[in-house]
Amino acid sequence: MRDVASADVVDRFFAACNAHDSDLLGRCFASNVAAVGPDGQAESREEVVSYYAVIWTAVPDMRFTVWQTIVEGEEVAATALGTGTHTGPLLITGGDLVPGTGRRISIRCCWVFTVEQGLIVSYHLFYDQLEMYAQLGLPMPGGGTPW
């Protein structure tokens, strides 16, 4: 059964991401939201919004197309495809800053959110970093190849 309140918050999250609207995005999160992803973790609303602002600078046409949302009470899982063109500096796992490559990316992503009282209080983000490195034409971490 779909919990409308939890699903609506996640819908607002994706709408804010696609609009690149920091204010709207911030209103989706509790002040002490805990977020974990391949790039590290954030422990406040400001840190989470800052993370997405960096992404929007690096990929100014970034959009998420939501494929599926599964809701179970306060828990919401969403799969999506993130697409855009990498034109600005991008901070990648390990702390390296990659200048814009001009390459298009199409990355499969999954978020698992916890929503309480109409706000996202935590989430985990998963995406295939190897897929992103390959699409950007970057060397594999550690100098190896994926095969």
From TrEMBL:
Highest taxon in the source lineage: Bacteria
Gene3D superfamilies: 3.10.450.50
GO biological process: polyketide metabolic process
InterPro entries in the cross-refs: Cyclase_SnoaL-like, NTF2-like_dom_sf, SnoaL-like
Cross-referenced SUPFAM superfamilies: NTF2-like
One Pfam family named in its UniProt record: SnoaL_2
Domain SnoaL-like: 10-123
Protein name: SnoaL-like domain-containing protein
Protein species of origin: Planotetraspora phitsanulokensis
